Amino acid sequence: MESPTYVAFATQKGGVGKSTLTTLVASYLYYAEGVELVAVDCDSSQHSMNVYRDHDLVVTKENPYLKRALHRFYLGFDKKPYEIILTSPKDALDVADNYVDNAPEEKKPSVVFFDITGTINDPDIVDLISNMDYLFVPITTETGEMASSISFASAVVNNMMTVGTTKIKELKLVWNKINSREKTRLCDVMDNYMQKHGLSSLDTVLVKSNKFEKDGRETGNTGMFRSTMLPPDRRLIRGTNLEGLVSEIREIIKV
């Protein structure tokens, strides 16, 4: 079997949406499209994906609607939730390699997602990023977050990819929390600016929506949008561009 593809959603600034994007893409691929995968949570400061998993365990027990939905889903899915491995940036590659080497053939992942945060000046972060096959950098239209994402992506391209010190095949920025289903005028202006500096973004944007807050805390027949244990609720996917985003990412990473 071919080696799995190593993919990271990475940025140096919190609040841009890297952990949410990692969870949404991983859960859609695994639960909706049957792609075998594992997630490696390298954000030692908060381990956001693990926080999401703990939250999912609580709300699916306490919310009767979600408890029934979970039961129905796994009757047909016939697999356990994908594994979330907690580690540090320093140990992440060894941990991922060991998981892949020891997984049974039917559980060998096609893709390993890494949730990474930190400064490009951290040698452990640099080494981890340099060993990715594909890198996706979330970017928003908030001035500070936008500048931070572009700075981070530029550093990776100029200091690693251009000089050939990395395995990265492609880096793409991902417009997140956009107020429309199409790129805004500001997105287009910044895309033109970034292209002059060797950067490019995905065609698909992820729409800003209160659907991201649908995580099971509500009562009634309300599904979950961001979950590590279930696919995004089909009713909540509408209008978010998530399906298009996953399709574009899947075409790039070839899984």
Textual characterization of the structure:
This protein is an alpha/beta fold. Helix content is 43%, strand content 13%. The chain has helices spanning 18-33, 48-62, 64-77, 92-102, 123-130, 143-161, 185-195, 234-237, 242-253, and strands spanning 5-11, 37-41, 84-86, 111-117, 134-139, 170-175. Strands 3-2-4-1-5-6 form a six-stranded parallel β-sheet, with helices on both faces. Helix 1 (18-33) crosses helix 9 and helix 2 packs across helix 3.
The coarse overall form would be: globular
Counted by DSSP, the helix tally is: 9
Compute the gyration radius: what is it?
18 Å
State the share of residues found in helices, binned by percent: 40-55%
Spatial strand arrangement across the major sheet: 3-2-4-1-5-6
- From N to C, what is the helix and strand string? EHEHHEHEHEHEHHH
User: Beta fraction of the residues?
Assistant: 5-15%
Largest sheet: 6 strands, parallel
- Count of DSSP E strands? 6
Strand-pairing-aware structural class: alpha/beta
Spans of at least 5 consecutive residues with low confidence: none
Terminal CA distance: 13 Å
- On the 0 to 100 scale, the average pLDDT is 92
